[in-house]
């Protein structure tokens, strides 16, 4: 057992559901107790989806516990097949079903005989893999299944496209700024005259999977999800892949150069150097910004970076090589990526932290007192407590990290966004610091703005007042005092407060 | 009080249906969110998996960052396969909790996983309690058996078995032993405790204590024959435990939600204690008058409850009294005995208001419900967040049902909060409608 208050990566089934719901016309059926379909809430709230999330539960209750699911799972699969007519039904095990050890594969086999949709059992073990690993595996599983199927019925597109083309593997919903990144990647490839063959799984239909092999190469923009699929395609279809993440000026250039090398090997005479140079110096603002006098202030400033492997590595490199910031610690909660993480980043930071314990991260930040933190929502809250500014650079995130406006992290526009994020974090820190030195311009004390001070608050009433959230407390205090004054009461008791509330004067 | 089963078959009475139970709701472990805040000296340990933890952390949002007094005992593979000893593991974690937080009581919340692997929490707790010197209460608030607010029911039922047992100690002479006392059960914010207590005080009734109280150490003493009364519609197990195990007398009444419910609740309690209630009608009338601005907007509007928190019947009854009509009351679980008073009032209210009787659908099927919503096109659907945005995109007003659980809704004055909640989606007049943008779902 582990005492845990917070976790960075979710349970395995979340990863599977993220893949399933990213495809079009795929329905996931969770073998889970009531209440485990919280994923639907997250997708509907965070991504503000207009469509019903195609996830239903085949509910595990007492009866199932006593007698097994029996026909229940099969019935549910058949029912969804009729109601929604999906291309694929993905049966998703949860922590509960993995200890029940029912033969879910058997249910899948039987259900697939009668349903139009294909039926698959997501092959993930709740106790061995987390959300991200599960997403990676499920994506590979689905791709593998449909490629094999296409090979069998000879519908596979094995001939390469005429012009250079690419598959983007891994972007899926509830990812950090994923939609904006996809748009930015599309733009980048358009500039390079490379066609995008497919983007899997976000927004793709199952039908598109058989087109995968016709692309010239694959890219995996996020290290955590898509790598297994890319490796599978490399092994079985001889497709090369690039797993460099194009976040930051230097890494984007690196990414483009790798594509250039690859295309040259495939017999294309391309030269992207001029494009890189032009974009870096004039189209994107961030390289010039790093050079500008403002950024001198950042030199030698300290930061701690923590998040998933992809974003932590990218941001650490930007801070260190593009902004001249000293990264005291760079860390990730993606334990399986440890080797890659260390290799990528050891040059750019003073220390490396691999943990999924947020308390440890908090303690280290408190000890080091960096001028800014770049991390997840948890680090943002750590920062709040310690009065250190924080820029959010990685999941897990809140709804405000699903912005409506265009906020890619990748490519040249992404580098602009990140430069703003970094710079704003540090200036805010500086401003705060100056304010403290000069006494500040805002006091949180509520007593200063009252109408009169002749009212006497009884301890009990005052305690009740303290319970009211800070942002409205001042207003309520004033209203109660006004109420007391009107009614000629010079002592505010709990009763007076309630009388005031009843008169509708609290707010 | 109880509805005669026979009278229900009549077409003038409420229809009860039961569907597949394929509906969306919160896991009952979510009760720790409000209970840890209510019981100030408690610590809640949820013994479950990452799935439980993920739900809590996401459902409770920012609360999680406020150093809450709850945590997960996250089960790992070695726990599941019994390679580790449950007792030793729990001892290790609880010792740590005691050292760091020094709570007056630790609640163990059992989950689906502890049920399936049959972890003997009830067996381990007393042993550990002795060793640590901290009371440990075990509540099985799992998704196999319960929905959302029923989590509170399991915790209070567990508490009901033991709290305030010593009736012979330190007689302060304040209470005479022969007159039965009144204990109210149900977790409500302290200001509601104060308010409802005051209402009863007006008629000379003293509430001896609340289950739960602000602190575990302040829980009231409970004797046999004492009267108990619930404030929340989802506390049927607690009620049963108090009646059967503690030999208390349950005052069955509608719940103090809405001015009508509050009046009926007070009236019922007063009638049990033989106290007249002069001025209570005026009190209710005044409360309704204060709501008039909302009522203007709400009259004639129709509501559909998809059902997820068991407050549905009380809310529907209140809404009908407000002049609305209710098509369907979805509800996870209905205890017709415990909710008997409420059901009777619902029926009475419908007749009084001249509106049709709603269908009550236990264990609803969300998919079927969505089809019915499509046909009926109600003015307001009260539903979980999983369906709210997709319904809005289809031009249907929604209110997120969970907000009723986290708002102050009891008593005369808080009725306003309830109506405020449901008025918002109906009031939200934007110019989009005039521009013809109602549908955000299909391309036209």
TrEMBL record, chain A:
Predominant location: plastid
Listed pathway(s): Porphyrin-containing compound metabolism; chlorophyll biosynthesis (light-independent)
Residues engaged in binding [4Fe-4S] cluster: 36
Provenance organism: Nannochloropsis gaditana
Gene behind the chain: chlB
Light-independent protochlorophyllide reductase subunit B-like C-terminal domain segment(s): 457-501
Family: Belongs to the ChlB/BchB/BchZ family.
Residues that coordinate or bind substrate: 429-430
Cofactor note: Binds 1 [4Fe-4S] cluster per heterodimer. The cluster is bound at the heterodimer interface by residues from both subunits.
Protein name stated in the entry: Light-independent protochlorophyllide reductase subunit B
NCBIfam families given in the database record: DPOR_BchB
UniProtKB keywords: 4Fe-4S, ATP-binding, Chlorophyll biosynthesis, Chloroplast, Iron, Iron-sulfur, Metal-binding, Nucleotide-binding, Oxidoreductase, Photosynthesis, Plastid
From TrEMBL, chain B:
E.C. numbers: 1.3.7.7
Cross-referenced Pfam families: Oxidored_nitro (PF00148)
Stretches that traverse the bilayer: none
UniProt KW Oxidoreductase keyword: yes
Annotated catalysed reactions: chlorophyllide a + oxidized 2[4Fe-4S]-[ferredoxin] + 2 ADP + 2 phosphate = protochlorophyllide a + reduced 2[4Fe-4S]-[ferredoxin] + 2 ATP + 2 H2O
InterPro entries linked to this entry: LIPOR_BchN/ChlN, Nase/OxRdtase_comp1, Protochl_reductN
Entry's cofactor comment: Binds 1 [4Fe-4S] cluster per heterodimer. The cluster is bound at the heterodimer interface by residues from both subunits.
Chief location category: plastid
Residues in the signal sequence: none
Cofactor names: [4Fe-4S] cluster
One Gene Ontology term, aspect cellular component: chloroplast
GO molecular function: 4 iron, 4 sulfur cluster binding; ATP binding; metal ion binding; oxidoreductase activity, acting on iron-sulfur proteins as donors; oxidoreductase activity, acting on the CH-CH group of donors, iron-sulfur protein as acceptor
Domain Nitrogenase/oxidoreductase component: 27-426
SUPFAM superfamilies listed in its UniProt record: Helical backbone' metal receptor
Residues binding [4Fe-4S] cluster, per UniProt: 27, 52, 112
Enzyme class: oxidoreductase
Known role: Component of the dark-operative protochlorophyllide reductase (DPOR) that uses Mg-ATP and reduced ferredoxin to reduce ring D of protochlorophyllide (Pchlide) to form chlorophyllide a (Chlide). This reaction is light-independent. The NB-protein (ChlN-ChlB) is the catalytic component of the complex.
Assigned protein family: Belongs to the BchN/ChlN family.
NCBIfam families with a match to the protein in the record: DPOR_bchN, PRK02842.1
Assembly: Protochlorophyllide reductase is composed of three subunits; ChlL, ChlN and ChlB. Forms a heterotetramer of two ChlB and two ChlN subunits.
Protein name: Light-independent protochlorophyllide reductase subunit N
Organism the protein comes from: Nannochloropsis gaditana
Name of the encoding gene: chlN
């Amino acid at each position: 057992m582990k005492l845990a208050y917070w976790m960075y990566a979710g349970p395995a089934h979340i990863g599977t559901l993220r893949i399933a719901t990213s495809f079009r016309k795929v329905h996931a059926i969770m073998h889970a107790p009531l209440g485990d379909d919280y994923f639907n809430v997250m997708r509907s709230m965070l991504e503000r989806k207009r469509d019903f999330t195609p996830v239903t539960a085949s509910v595990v209750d007492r009866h199932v516990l006593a007698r097994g699911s029996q026909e229940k799972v099969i019935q549910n699969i058949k029912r969804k097949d009729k109601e929604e007519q999906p291309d694929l039904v993905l049966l998703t095990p949860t922590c509960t079903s993995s200890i029940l050890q029912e033969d879910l594969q058997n249910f899948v086999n039987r259900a697939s005989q009668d349903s139009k949709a294909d039926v698959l059992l997501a092959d993930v073990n709740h106790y061995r893999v987390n959300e991200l690993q599960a997403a990676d595996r499920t994506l590979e599983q689905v791709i593998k299944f449909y490629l094999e199927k296409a090979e069998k019925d000879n519908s596979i597109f094995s001939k390469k496209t005429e012009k250079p083309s690419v598959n983007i593997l891994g972007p899926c919903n509830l990812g950090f700024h994923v939609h904006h990144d996809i748009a930015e990647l599309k733009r980048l490839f358009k500039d390079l005259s490379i066609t995008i063959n497919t983007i899997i799984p976000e927004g793709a239909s199952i039908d598109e999977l058989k087109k995968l092999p016709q692309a010239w190469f694959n890219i995996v923009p996020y290290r955590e999800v898509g790598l297994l699929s890319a490796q599978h395609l490399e092994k079985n279809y001889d497709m090369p892949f690039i797993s460099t993440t194009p976040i930051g000026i230097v890494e984007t250039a690196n990414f483009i150069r790798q594509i250039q090398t690859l295309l040259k090997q495939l017999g294309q005479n391309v030269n992207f150097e001029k494009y890189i140079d032009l974009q870096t110096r004039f189209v994107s603002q961030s390289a010039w910004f790093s050079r500008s006098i403002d950024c001198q202030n950042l030199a030698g400033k300290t930061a701690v970076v923590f998040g998933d492997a992809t974003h932590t590595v990218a941001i650490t490199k930007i801070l260190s090589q593009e902004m001249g910031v000293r990264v005291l610690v760079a860390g990730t909660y993606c334990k399986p990526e440890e080797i890659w993480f260390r290799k990528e980043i050891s040059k750019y930071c003073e220390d490396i932290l691999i943990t999924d314990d947020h308390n440890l991260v908090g303690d280290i930040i408190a000890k080091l007192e960096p001028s800014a933190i770049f991390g997840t929502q948890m680090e943002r809250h750590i920062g709040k407590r310690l009065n250190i500014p924080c820029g959010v650079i990685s999941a897990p995130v809140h709804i405000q990290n699903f912005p409506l406006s265009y906020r890619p992290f990748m490519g040249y526009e992404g580098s602009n966004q990140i430069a703003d994020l970094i710079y704003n974090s540090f200036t805010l820190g500086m401003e705060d610091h100056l304010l403290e030195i000069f006494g500040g311009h805002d006091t949180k004390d509520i007593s200063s703005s009252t109408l009169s001070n002749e009212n006497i608050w009884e301890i009990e009433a005052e305690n009740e007042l303290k319970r009211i959230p800070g942002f409205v407390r001042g207003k309520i205090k004033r209203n109660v005092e006004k109420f007391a004054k009107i009614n000629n009461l010079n002592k505010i008791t709990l009763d007076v407060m309630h009388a005031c509330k009843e008169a509708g004067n609290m707010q | 009080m109880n509805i005669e089963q026979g009278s229900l078959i009549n077409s003038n009475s409420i229809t009860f249906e039961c569907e597949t139970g394929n509906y969306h709701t919160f896991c009952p472990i979510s009760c720790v969110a409000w209970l840890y805040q209510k019981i100030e000296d408690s610590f809640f340990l949820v013994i479950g998996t990452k799935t439980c933890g993920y739900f809590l952390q996401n459902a409770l949002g920012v609360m999680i960052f406020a150093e809450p007094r709850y945590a997960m005992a996250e089960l790992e593979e070695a726990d599941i396969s019994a390679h580790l000893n449950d007792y030793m593991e729990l001892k290790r974690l609880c010792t740590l909790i005691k050292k760091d937080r020094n709570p007056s009581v630790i609640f163990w919340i059992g989950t689906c996983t502890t049920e399936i692997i049959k972890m003997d929490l009830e067996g381990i707790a007393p042993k550990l309690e002795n060793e640590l010197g901290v009371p440990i209460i075990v509540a099985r608030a799992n998704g196999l058996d319960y929905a959302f607010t029923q989590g509170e029911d399991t915790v209070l039922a567990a508490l009901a078995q033991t709290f305030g047992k010593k009736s012979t100690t330190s007689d302060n002479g304040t209470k005479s032993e022969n007159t039965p006392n009144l204990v109210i059960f149900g977790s409500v914010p302290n200001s509601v405790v104060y308010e409802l207590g005051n209402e009863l005080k007006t008629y000379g009734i003293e509430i001896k204590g609340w289950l739960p109280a602000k602190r575990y150490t302040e829980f009231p003493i409970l004797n046999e024959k004492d009267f108990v009364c619930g404030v929340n519609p989802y506390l049927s197990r607690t009620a049963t435990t108090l009646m059967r195990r503690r030999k208390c007398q349950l005052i069955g009444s509608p719940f103090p939600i809405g001015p009508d419910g509050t009046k009926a609740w007070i009236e019922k309690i007063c009638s049990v204690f033989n106290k007249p209630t002069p001025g209570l009608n005026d009190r209710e009338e005044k409360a309704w008058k204060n709501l008039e601005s909302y009522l203007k907007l709400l009259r004639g509007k129709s509501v559909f409850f998809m059902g997820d928190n068991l407050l549905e019947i009380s809310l529907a009854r209140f809404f009908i009294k407000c002049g609305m009509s209710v098509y369907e009351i979805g509800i996870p679980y209905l205890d017709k005995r415990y909710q008997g008073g409420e059901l009777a009032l619902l029926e009475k209210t419908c007749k009084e208001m001249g509106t049709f009787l709603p269908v009550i659908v236990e264990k609803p099927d969300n998919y079927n419900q969505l089809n019915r919503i499509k046909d009926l096109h109600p003015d307001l659907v009260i539903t979980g967040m999983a369906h709210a945005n997709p319904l809005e995109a289809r031009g249907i007003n929604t209110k997120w049902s969970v907000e009723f659980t986290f708002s102050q809704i009891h008593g005369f004055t808080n009725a306003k909060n309830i109506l405020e909640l449901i008025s918002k989606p109906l009031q939200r007049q934007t110019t989009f409608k005039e521009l013809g943008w109602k549908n955000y779902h299909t391309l036209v």
